[in-house]
Write a structure and sequence with these properties.
Length: 141
């Protein structure tokens, strides 16, 4: 019984954090949305597998039918409960996109993994390689 009381006390010490998120990469937005972060965190992911863009030469187009192009995006935000700091969060974002088929087969990926202090009402902008930008605004309670 005492352990369940402790668990509920921890939950009340760390209320759900509601954040507005925009993730940009390359030439545009990858995702815009709202996450509700409890003590176990929140995440969003998407994946698309489709045919690669055709090459200009007909021989390349024929061989392209045997391959697929994959795009993925993953975002997770978790409380980084260190020394009882309720406003410290760990942000992990990863963006994977295909190499243009005519340039070879495979993917390119960029990611960021960063801890941020995100008090209610604050906006943070995290910048990774390859044009990956994550903007997070924590709503006031």
């Amino acid at each position: 019984m005492a352990s369940s009381l402790r668990g509920s006390t921890r939950a009340s010490e760390n209320p759900i954090a509601v954040v507005d998120v925009t993730v940009e990469a390359g030439r545009g937005a990858l995702w815009t949305g709202v996450l509700k972060i409890d003590n176990s965190g929140a995440s969003y992911s998407e994946s698309l597998r489709d045919a690669p863009e055709p090459c200009d030469d007909k021989a390349g187009n024929a061989s392209a039918s045997n391959f697929s192009a994959q795009r993925q995006f993953n975002l997770s935000i978790r409380r980084y409960n260190r020394n009882g700091a309720p406003d410290l969060f760990s942000v992990n974002a990863r963006w994977t996109r295909p190499i243009p088929f005519c340039e070879g087969q495979g993917t390119r990926s960029v990611s960021l993994d960063q801890q941020v202090d995100l008090v209610p009402g604050r906006t943070v902008r995290l910048t990774g390689d390859g044009g990956l930008v994550v903007t997070i605004t924590r709503r006031a309670n």
